[in-house]
């Protein structure tokens, strides 16, 4: 994965050394020689990651970080602050300024590249979500749902019960999310039972690989795929810790670190998790709105066409047949003319409802055009398809709809064009639709309120 990194440091040699270390991994690297330049470049270049020294000449790295995080244009960019060796105060100050990561000097190459990879991955995910969210919003489909006030949930997994208890005591008063302690071997069972958390703090046990396995397991489960994972490791387990980052951990803490550091890192990860959850929610809502017809609550044409391709593909690989029907209301124009457009709308909704009620869950029902519906039934033989089409025809015309304001019953019928796909027939979806359409035309010509099976032109 490539990505862009902005390095800000007022000492030229520091910049050069970092640039050399990072360029070998094919990142695109740009430089800023002051805090002001870093802020300006971050706004104009929108890099994936900004690396800030704590001394930028005109301001501290903390101030620059806080400014980046306060600006909506740059708030989503990952920021790492580079601190002097073993400087706990600097580390806390960096985390308080909102840094996503703190890198203590000296920066050895493996640590730097593992950390940068993890930050890049986080930035790529949030960047992609952000882009899609912006598209959905630009289409005018969804307003951001109100930020939910529910507290988050954090699971602590110590290598011993005492370790996790110690963390909980240390975090008291600094974290307002729900905190639960879980034994390592119980974590996945709890997830399976529906009790999953936003964040997991996991202690690695030297030489066992158990912490690492749990990270992979959590990443593989739907419910915890997007959870934040923070790994607590011993001073000596550096290699294991870096591997944890590559397996998908979001952050690392050295065992015995200041509880305030843990609290700050948890807060950063919780913020990241919630931003991403919110964006995903907007996307889901946007997707629903672009694929559902608002009058009938059925899928729309755009969704149906995409879905048909999937059904055809599955039928090809599985060697099964599927049925395709185009269903058109007969003389619908006269419904509008007699009862008005609003009643026409209600008839459309009722027809959609009746079709849906007479089909299986796996069948697709969509509003394909004005008063035309599409039904696709996977894994269906010709005999079954004929019977289903006949059932659909009858369910529409056998009882009137009482929707006119004066109570006048409205009865409508439909004509159905049926085409079969799959099996030895390799016809593409547009060809099958043309066959169904031709059959529908014949059904209309022969008097309406009937099902006609289409045949491929020889
Ligand atoms: P046929 O039996 O040949 O299908 O006759 P028809 O009257 O149903 O067909 P035609 O294509 O002549 O007219 C379809 C009518 O459907 C015209 C259009 O105004 C109406 N229509 C299309 N979409 C809607 C809608 O969303 N609401 C309402 N109320 N009417 C619609
Ligand atoms: Mg019609």
From TrEMBL:
Phosphoprotein keyword on record: yes
GO biological process terms held by the UniProt record: cell adhesion involved in single-species biofilm formation; negative regulation of bacterial-type flagellum-dependent cell motility; phosphorelay signal transduction system
Residues the record lists as 4-aspartylphosphate modifications: 53
CDD domains cross-referenced by the UniProt entry: GGDEF
Annotated Gene Ontology cellular component terms: plasma membrane
The organism's place on the tree of life at top rank: Bacteria
EC number: 2.7.7.65
Top EC class for this record: transferase
PANTHER family: DIGUANYLATE CYCLASE DGCM-RELATED, REGULATORY COMPONENTS OF SENSORY TRANSDUCTION SYSTEM
Short name of one Pfam family: Response_reg
Response regulatory domain sequence ranges: 4-120
The species this protein was found in: Celeribacter indicus
The name this protein goes by in its record: diguanylate cyclase
Catalytic activity of the protein: 2 GTP = 3',3'-c-di-GMP + 2 diphosphate
NCBIfam families, sorted: GGDEF
Record-annotated GGDEF domain positions: 320-456
UniProt xrefs under SUPFAM superfamilies: CheY-like, Nucleotide cyclase
Molecular function via GO: diguanylate cyclase activity
InterPro entries: CheY-like_superfamily, Diguanylate_Cyclase, GGDEF_dom, Nucleotide_cyclase, Rev_trsase/Diguanyl_cyclase, Sig_transdc_resp-reg_receiver
Alphabetically ordered keywords of this record: Phosphoprotein
Entries under SMART domains matching the protein: GGDEF, REC
